[in-house]
Amino acid sequence: QVRVDETGGRSVQAGDSLRLSCTLSGIPIEPYSMGWFRQVPGKEREFVAAISRSDRRTVYADSMKGRIALSRGSAKNTVDLQMNSLQPDDTAVYYCAAVYGRTSDSASRLSDDYKFWGQGTQVTVSS
Questions:
Q1: pLDDT, position 75
Q2: For a FRET experiment, which of 44, 85, 97, 98 has its CA 20 to 30 Å from that of 110?
Q3: 9 contact partners, CB below 8 Å, separation of at least 6
């Protein structure tokens, strides 16, 4: 059974940093492109970052570029999303997702492209 599990969400102050981790289990992570999205109540799910299965390509949302970094984690079958200079507008549920990489450098911004999703982890940023 395939599982996607996010960890690391919590309440922080504006300006703080936070690292979210995503673990893919049930299948090896190497062939999969991984993405992060976020959602606030009443709004559509929003793209945050994605990394290709080759790790050669990462893409970031313009709204967060320069403040975030996505990488394969040191732990097996994980990816880590480092977020810096967090602001109250970053408050959301953050979701990790996986899709089999069509090419070695595929990294999609589209939530519909992803097949496996986690339950999400809450990030709350207070001013």
A1: 84
A2: 85
A3: 18, 20, 93, 94, 120, 121, 122, 123
Q: Considering the chain, what is the average pLDDT of its residues?
A: 95
| Spatial CB neighbours of 34, under 8 Å, sequence gap ≥ 6 | 22, 24, 50, 51, 70, 79, 96, 97, 98
Structure tokens, 107: 């990294």
pLDDT band at 62 (very low <50, low <70, confident <90, very high): very high
For the chain, give the number of residues: 127
The CA angle 113-114-120, to the nearest 5 degrees, is 140
DSSP structure string for 30-92: TTEEEEEEEE-TTS--EEEEEE-TTSS-EEE-TTTTTTEEEEE-SSTTEEEEEE-S--GGG-E
Question: What is the Cα–Cα distance from 50 to 48, expressed in whole angstroms?
Answer: 7
CA gap 18, 15 in Å, rounded: 10
